[in-house]
User: What shape does this take?
Amino acid sequence: MTGDMATVTGNRGLVIEEPLIFEQGSPAKCGVDLPDPADKPDRLGGLARSGAIGLPGLSEPEVVRHYTRLSQKNYAIDAGFYPLGSCTMKHNPRLNERMARLPGFADLHPFQPQATVQGALAVMHHLSDWLLGLTGMEAVALSPAAGAHGELCGMQAVRAALDARGEDHRRTVLVPDSAHGTNPATAALCGFKVRGIPGDATGRVDVAAFKAALDDTVAGVMLTNPNTCGLFERDMVELAEAVHAAGAYFYLDGANFNAIVGRVKIADLGVDAMHINLHKTFSTPHGGGGPGAGPTVLSAALAPFAPLPHVVAEGDGVRLIEHIEGDMQPFGRMKGFHGQFGVFVRALSYMMSLGRDGLRQASGDAVLNANYLMARLGDTLTASFEGPCMHEALFDDRFLKGTGVSTLDFAKAMIDEGFHPMTMYFPLVVHGAMLMEPTETESRETLDAFCDAVLALAAKARAGDAAFFTEAPRHTPRRRLDETKAARTPVLRWEPPAPARAAE
Amino acid sequence: MSTLYFTEDHEWVAVDGNTATVGVTDYAQKQLGDVVFVEVPEAGKVLAKGDEAAVIESVKAASEVYAPVTGTVTEGNTDLAETPATVNDSPMDDGWFFRMSLDDASELDDLMDEAAYAAFVASLD
Assistant: This one.
């Protein structure tokens, strides 16, 4: 804090300097006042805890204030523009929240008999229908809990299919440079060896290098489309045909589905498996605001290996299949119970309220908004690749060359302007990347305010005012953090000031 | 006296007889920024040329260090786990990653010498 702004309390207006909860209150204080139970038989064989366990002691209003103050330090999509590339931070319609809070959905227990939760199962079945309808695929596994978990589901299905074919020597997965970073991690977790495929000068997969890498050890390919440079992989069908001709499977990372939903039928591209981030494309809170969900759609070739449970319509009702029936060959389960049900309700509510035409318009507007940023910023910032982009605009740091300002410094200055910065230093294929994804839910006024700020900052950087950037941010509760020290010598646990008795 | 070779992945290889010492170049550490985590291979690990041999993580990115030649690891620089900053301070010397035996000396022919690497780095700007 600057000296001339100093206050007695350390607070700045309504920005409260909040200590940790452990640094507040006293062990003698408690938010609830319950009588000691009269009858306390020892059922722990004399192992009952005797020492203090070091919980903070605060009254209820103190606890409420503590967490409210912490929440006020958050920046969220509900607070402002959040152009974090690759994250699809769009508005989460409140209608979805209202549907998810209906008692018939919110108060369920996964152990309830199926006859008592037919409405919930119908939601899962209806959602499955939507996902299959939008992609043209054969089967869907709803249970994966997030995007990378959906990748794991798809690649486990690939592995199961190869094993069923007796081709367990196929253990290599090709991953282009422009794929999401989780793709190689997923392949490695499934026991595959990862081989990178370079991109070409247009930011897309090098088709010749791709085809040259296809041999009889290749299990599959993991490609992101639109890719992480915000570009559509135009040679997708040709790539898929080559993959299938080589006897391998085609995994599509569907994290960027928001750019093409309602416009591209995934099955027509030759895809064998794709996860769909419901929390991104279908607008459920994420990024610290809620759990994700990554249902995985499968082609006819992989459908027999879909994990349990399956959701099937039977007669007038819907049934959850939890054990092998008939000739199904599930590779297993992805998690306990049936998936992120609350996210299913929100996503289905979003789909039904927008309709197919609305979803198609949403993806078009997402691409339009990104190209608006590209058009307004492209002459000043340096776009990494030529031509229009899809749902996100990628710039690199060539425009900062010689200014002494880095991508990180530039991002910190954007915080002072009241914006969440874009994604930095990702993708790795360009230098000092700045990846901006505005999404379709931002107005032109918001985009203009953002562009005005970015252009003004770029002019300031080029005018030689490097210190303005290297000292940013100035208006945040904390100034620039020492990321290196935080990573090298992290303090992961609060320690009480005086030696306290260890928990017994 | 060892002979220095370089790869396009910004690794250096110092070859002394049948032993190669591998690290990342000064250009690599500058591009990565402050290095905060390093994982080196253990002795006995067999590596084919191009295999992932070590992991390096900075405040900006996580990357792999690849085996520049085929051989067997004889020693990893375990000090880097405690003091990853050594990679920034002394990339060509104390910041070495691992030593390995050399299976096929002819693989060195594919690598660059110091002058060729300097020209390669200059072409990147």
